[in-house]
Design brief:
Strand 7 and strand 8 form a beta hairpin. The strands form 2 sheets. This protein has a 6-stranded antiparallel β-sheet with strand order 3-4-5-6-7-8. The protein has a two-stranded parallel ribbon with strand order 1-2. About 40% of the residues lie in helices and about 15% in strands. The protein is of the alpha+beta class. Helix 1 (about 10-25) runs parallel beside helix 4 (about 110-130), helix 3 (about 60-85) packs antiparallel against helix 4 and helix 4 crosses helix 5. It has 2 domains: about 5-40 and about 55-80 and about 95-185, no CATH class; about 185-335, no CATH class.
């Protein structure tokens, strides 16, 4: 059994639930902001000044709905993948994995773990805000809840020979899950955010031909790391001096991207002496600089549309870019 499966059952459950609660946890109409969601917006003068406005008044019916949903998803999810996933040889002790070198995916998988932790934590933070917690308390609860859920996943992996507890993966989970809390505690850090770009690579789109020819390929889109780019964005308008801010478009930012090329396929070494295809060069990381568009500045102020724009802001839309490493290359549009 390999780890290359269409979607990991628990990951799917957590992702679907976070999508659902993100939909529930929308800002109230009275506080809706066209360029902010409940996590990122300043809800009061006390919050802007660095204080905590305190408990805003819990809605216990909403809290019960979230708690009940979480319990059901966890129970059903674990029953399912206990049968479908954890069927390999179990160990008496933890199998520790320390793939800090990232020879398989050139650490692109760590980007996936980072973004997964961030997405889950932010979705839960939005949900806790929806139930009535203050922004800082909601962010702390969102971080702790997502961290605990992801820890449980790794601990279940830890006792199986084919999985193991990946220390680098969990470190990336933790860093991602901590971002909403950092944004809540230090509002000035909100000028930095993170986005995801994807365009299927030939490893996936031509996987059948490549498999038959014995060449690198990726069977499932979830493993197509060569098609992914992870972006750290900067809200330029928020850091410019007043005079420059007046002329710089509010919606336009900058993004620093990390990607990879030359991967050797799913679950095989892509570089180093143990790489899967000895006749091919090592896979290499890529660093890019691109323009970035803040989707929250799209026209329209309807409550549902504002929420949709916030979700769109997870995506780095095609924009002019420069590849800085390993060599310089210009792109008219890069996703």
């Amino acid at each position: 059994m390999t780890r290359s499966v269409p979607v990991r059952p628990l990951g799917a459950c957590l992702l679907l639930w976070s999508l659902a609660v993100a939909g529930l946890g929308m800002p109230d109409r009275a506080t809706a902001d066209p360029v902010a969601d409940p996590i990122e917006s300043d809800h009061s003068e006390a919050d802007r000044a660095g204080g905590d406005p305190g408990l805003a008044g819990l809605d216990y019916s909403r809290l019960a709905l979230i708690g009940g949903s979480a319990a059901i998803v966890r129970h059903v999810g674990y029953r399912y993948f206990d049968r479908a996933w954890y069927q390999g040889e179990k160990r008496d002790s933890i199998r520790w994995l320390n793939d800090w070198a990232g020879d398989t995916y050139v650490n692109m998988d760590k980007g996936g773990h980072f973004m997964g932790g961030l997405f889950l934590s932010r979705s839960l933070t939005t949900t806790y805000t929806w139930t009535g917690f203050s922004p800082r308390k909601a962010a702390a609860l969102g971080m702790l809840t997502s961290w605990a859920a992801l820890l449980e996943v790794e601990m279940r992996d830890a006792y199986f020979d084919q999985w193991g507890f990946s220390v680098p993966d969990f470190a990336a989970n933790t860093l991602g899950a901590s971002v909403p809390l950092l944004h809540a505690l230090v509002p000035s850090t909100r000028v930095i955010d993170f986005k995801f770009g994807f365009w299927p690579s030939s490893l996936y789109t031509d996987n059948e031909e490549r498999r038959l020819a014995g060449r690198p390929h990726t069977d499932f889109i979830i493993d197509d790391y060569e098609g992914m780019t992870f972006w750290m964005t900067l809200a330029v308008n928020d850091v410019l001096p007043d005079r420059a801010e007046e002329v710089w478009p509010d919606f336009l930012g900058l993004a620093l991207g990390y990607g990879a090329s030359g991967l050797h396929g799913s679950n095989v070494k892509s570089r180093g002496r143990e790489r899967a295809f000895k006749d091919l060069p090592d896979a290499r990381p890529e660093i890019l600089l691109s323009l970035d568009y803040d989707a929250r500045y799209l026209p329209g102020k309807d409550l549902m549309w504002n929420h949709f724009k916030t979700q769109l802001n997870w995506i780095h839309f095609p924009a002019p870019a420069i590849r800085l490493y390993p060599d310089v290359r210009f792109y008219l549009l890069y996703l």
